[in-house]
Design goal:
Oligomer: single chain
Radius of gyration: 15 Å
Number of strands: 10
Helix content: under 10%
Largest sheet: 5 strands, antiparallel
Number of helices: 1
Amino acid sequence: MTDLKLLALDAEDLEVVSAATQDAIVRVGDMGYAKADQRFALLMNRYAWEDAAGGNKGVRKRAALHFDRVTAVKVTGIDTNALEGALDLLTLSFTETDAPGGHVDLAFAGGGTVRLDVEVLEARLQDLGAAWAAKIKPEHAA
């Protein structure tokens, strides 16, 4: 098992990061926006799809994801006061609206969304070293 360290500078790169973070568990209290630094960051327990082979349940890894050059954050369908609440990250997507800027959507199970307005897409994902056996392997209907 190797630790991931990914950089996304366009929509295609973000698709790779999205695949690596699908089914990550995120505590509401582990997401935050540093307006002065124009950075949105979150910690997660990501399911390591790249390590899940055959019938094994795979592993989860502690990871950090942050987006730079963020000008605004909009949250819908998530109780931001429930700091201990757990969210299941489904996808990350980028829509260019005013090149090279646009918005990044973090979509969570149950319909919650975090939308980041960005001057330009710049995201970094990094595993933080901690890994443990997953209790279940996430499944999705075809």
